[in-house]
Amino acid sequence: MGKKQSELLSSGKDESPMFKMKELMDATGVSKATILHYVKEGLLPEPVKTSPNMAYYPHSCIERIDFIKQLQSKHRLPLAQIKIILEEQDKGREVTPLIELKEVLFGQNGSEHLDKNAFGRVTGLSSEDVDKYLSQDLLIPKEEGRFDPEDVAIGRILRLARDLGIKPEEAEYYPRFAKEIVAKEMAIHKRLVKDRSYEEAINVTMELTRVARAIRAYIIDRVFQKQALSQEIFDDKTTDEVR
C-alpha cells in the first residue's frame, strides 16, 4: 500500500481524506488532550472508529479547530459559547454578528484561566471560602472549575469582605435580587425580539445588553448615594465618642 490508510478513508460525499489523531495534531498544532476535550464538549464530531485503538477524524476538523482557536485567542470566548456559535454555523447561518454579540455579553477578559487551587492562592481565599462563595452564588465563574481575571478580581474583593467580617449569607441578597432583575430583563428581551429576523434579534440583544448594564450600575450607585446623603452614617459613632 503506497498511500496512508487515512488517505483511503473519506469524510463524506466530498471524498475528503480523514486523519489519524497524530495527523490531526500535526495539522492543527493542538494536543491530543485538547482534541479529545473538544470532542467531549461537542465542538468536534466523534471520530470514525475502525478498531478499538484506531480512529479517524474528518478533514473538516482542521478548519473547525482553527476557528475554535481564533474564537479563543482573538475573541476570548469560553468553550460553551463557542459551541453555540459552531452550532449556528452548522445551520448555515452567518455567525459574525453572533460573535460580536458574545463579545458584548462575555467581554474580553483574557484567555488565562486558573483552577480552584491557583485561584485560592492568588486571591487569598481558602478552599472552604471558595466553596462557600460558589454555593452562595457570590462567585460565578463562566466555566465550572475555571476562573478568569474577572473572577480573580471579585475573589480579592470577597476576601476583603471576609476580613471586614461580612459573612457570605449576609450578602445573599445580591444574587437573589440579581436573578429577579435578570428575569425581568429577559422578559423584555423576549418581547423585543419576537417576530424579528435572526440578524435583527442579535442587534437588539446587543443594544439591550448595553442598556441593561448601564441602568443596573447607575440605579444601584445612585440609590446608595441618596441613602448615604439622607442620613448621617456615623451618627452613632459620633454620639458614642461625645459621651
Textual characterization of the structure:
This protein has 243 residues and is mainly alpha-helical. The protein has three domains: 107 residues, Orthogonal Bundle (Multidrug-efflux Transporter Regulator, Chain: A, Domain 2), CATH 1.10.1660.10; 62 residues, Multidrug-efflux Transporter Regulator, Chain: A, Domain 2 (Orthogonal Bundle); 72 residues. Helix content is 63%, strand content 5%. It has a three-stranded antiparallel β-sheet. Helix 10 runs antiparallel to helix 11. It is flat, with a radius of gyration of 25 Å.
What keyword list fits this structure?
flat, Multidrug-efflux Transporter Regulator, Chain: A, Domain 2, 12 helices, 3-stranded antiparallel beta sheet, mainly alpha, 243 residues
Compose a concise summary of this entry.
This protein has 243 residues and is mainly alpha-helical. It contains twelve helices and three strands.
Please give the structural blueprint.
Layout: H1 5-8, E1 18-19, H2 21-28, H3 32-40, E2 48-51, E3 54-58, H4 60-73, H5 79-90, H6 96-106, H7 116-123, H8 127-135, H9 149-164, H10 173-193, H11 198-229, H12 235-242
Antiparallel strand pairs: 1-3, 2-3
What composes the largest sheet?
3 strands, antiparallel
Overall structural domain count:
3
* CATH C-level label of the largest domain: Mainly Alpha
Beta content comes to under 5%
**Secondary-structure element sequence?**
HEHHEEHHHHHHHHH
Low-confidence stretches: 1-8, 10-14
Mean pLDDT: 86
Number of strands: 3
Rg on CA atoms, Å: 25 Å
Helix content estimate: 55-70%
Distance between the termini: 99 Å
Q: What's the tally of helices?
A: 12
Find the structural class using helix and strand composition: mainly alpha
